[in-house]
Structure formats: C-alpha cells, structure tokens
C-alpha cells in the first residue's frame, strides 16, 4: 500500500485552517503540521519534509506577502516539495513570482475556489506529480496584460485554448475532456504549438511543455 501524501498547511485564520485541513484529511492527505505564520511554515517544512506545502499569501508576521515569500524559500531549499499558494485577491504578479522559471510542482488558487474540495484535492495531486495548478482566472488575467510583442501570435484560437489548459496544469487527456475533442486531436495541437514556438524536438516533451507555458505566461 502506498503511503499517503504528506502536507504542511499555513493559514492564520483558525476557522479557515481547520476547514482546509478537514478537506485534505478527507481526501486521504496526512496533514503533518498546520501553522499560523510564515516563520513556522518554513520551519515545519524543513522539519517534516512534506510532499506539498499549502499556504495563504497574507500571513503574519508582516501580513503582506509573507506566505508567498515562505513558499519561495521552501521551493528554493527543497525543489522536490510542491507548493500551492492561496490568495483572496486576483493578483497575477504573485503567480508569476511564484512560478519563476519553472511551473513544475506549483499551484496558485483563489481562496474562493477552495470551497470546492475537489478543486483543492485535484490541485494537490497535480503539483505533487510535478504538474502545475494555476487558477483559470489568473490565466485570464495574465492573458489580458499588454505586451510589446506577442510570441503566441502565430497560434490558432484552438492552439491558444490548448496552451491555456496546459498552463493550468491539465494533461492531454484532461484537455481533451474539457474541449470535447479526442486525445489525438490535442496531441496534434500540442505538436503545432511546439513547432510554431520553435521548441527543439531534441528536448523532452516535458521540457517543451514547460517552455511553452512560460512563454504563454510572458516570462
């Protein structure tokens, strides 16, 4: 029998913390520590070495972006630890700061979406598997930014839709389900995306997906 996923949770509001912890435990996730400030979050992650860290952005001691900075510190110290940041407000710049130059093992969700247990548990599974889980509203906000040049100008609307779902962290099968097309059709669109973005065939498929997502996010 495989071991349950182990999580460290950071949230300064006790009621919200208990709610998230309940969702995780019901999904079979072992919450090894639940703390209320960013300092304890970093310490708990170092002590317990969890599979995933889930944290609010705004936490003590500064009540600004302390949770985000703690997540970045944890990610730097232990790249194998997946991180999910929860935000009450839609701020795409936070998502870009968290993603850095690699979206693998990273999630950014709006807090209101976590009211749906499946949203959180799906995100946990994706980031632990080294995928990403970026909130669709955040993706939309990133798309709306003005850029001096658009590296995606050559993509068709369908290819853009596929790339947007890739950025959210969905597999080809998941993309096919959401677009109501076959997996083979998605694979053709993905191949077209790689060709138009001039991503070398010598690189692994995973590397090319990561590079494509980073270009989509405007890195």
Describe this structure in words.
The chain has 219 residues and is of the alpha/beta class. The protein folds into 2 domains: 6-141, Rossmann fold, CATH 3.40.50.2300; 147-217, Arc Repressor Mutant, subunit A (Orthogonal Bundle), CATH 1.10.10. It is 51% helix and 14% strand. It is built from 10 helices and 6 strands, in the order E-H-E-H-E-H-E-H-E-H-E-H-H-H-H-H. The chain has a 6-stranded parallel beta sheet with strand order 2-1-3-4-5-6, sandwiched between helices. Helix 3 links the parallel strand 3 (52-56) and strand 4 (82-87). Helix 7 (157-168) packs across helix 9 (183-196) and helix 7 (157-168) packs across helix 10 (205-217). Residues 6-128 form the Response regulatory domain. This is DNA-binding response regulator. InterPro entries: CheY-like_superfamily, NreC/VraR/RcsB-like_REC, Sig_transdc_resp-reg_C-effctor, Sig_transdc_resp-reg_receiver, Tscrpt_reg_LuxR_C, WalR-like. One of its GO terms (biological process) is phosphorelay signal transduction system.
